[in-house]
Amino acid sequence: MNEQIIIEQRFCGPPESGNGGYSCGMLANFVGDSAEVKLISPPPLDTPLTVESREGRYTLLNGDTVVAAAEAAVVDIEVPAPPTLAQARETMAGAEIFEKHKFPTCFVCGPHRAECDGLRIFPGAVQGRNYVATEWIPDDSLTDDTGLVRNEIIWAALDCPGAWAVFAGRTRAIVLGKLAVQIMSRMKAHEPCIVLGWQIGEEGRKLMCGTALFSETGELYARARATWIELKKESQ
Fold this sequence. Notes:
Distance between the termini: 38 Å
CATH class of the largest domain: Alpha Beta
CATH architecture of the largest domain: Roll
CATH superfamily of the largest domain: Hotdog Thioesterase
Largest sheet: 11 strands, antiparallel
CATH topology of the largest domain: Thiol Ester Dehydrase, Chain A
Helix content: 10-25%
Strand order of the largest sheet: 1-3-4-5-2-8-11-10-9-7-6
Order of helices and strands: EHEEEEHHEEHHEEEE
Structural class: alpha+beta
Shape: globular
């Protein structure tokens, strides 16, 4: 199998490359509802990328350059109990996300993105809980022809909240290394959702976290585990 995908400019993370979660989700669509994707190089925008399949492993290529690799995975991460929708709605990430954001046009968490353009997911600390959370309401442009939010959008929504969880009060230069997602159910447009992100641990420059998506009544829609890589100081 050789097919092609294109990551459009709308779905950027940094201005010149695709949002990690969205890009991983585009490749994971070839795997199924439970997959792990390893990002190897920045996903280019508005460029035809080739998907190659061999023995259950899917590779995303930009010419001879490997962008990402995906395969089926078990996502058995334990998910904390979510806050109420009202608690999630009240959180605010504070000045850090709005004033110190390294990529303010990021499709998922960029404060410079307009409504119905970016996802505008701005997670903040929840009082008495060891996680960040926020409300997210998807718009009509994010759905497929069944009226449900597309898988790659769910992957995107599960990406950046993990980064804000592992920042741990200080902005770090980090890049997404791996993202594994299990989708149990998909939401409709205009349906209020609760987004969660929590830190799991650190190993050197590797920062591990979990993220989850819930309905407004606390039904688990999707969960993810991610590994972020903190860049060396000379690379920042």
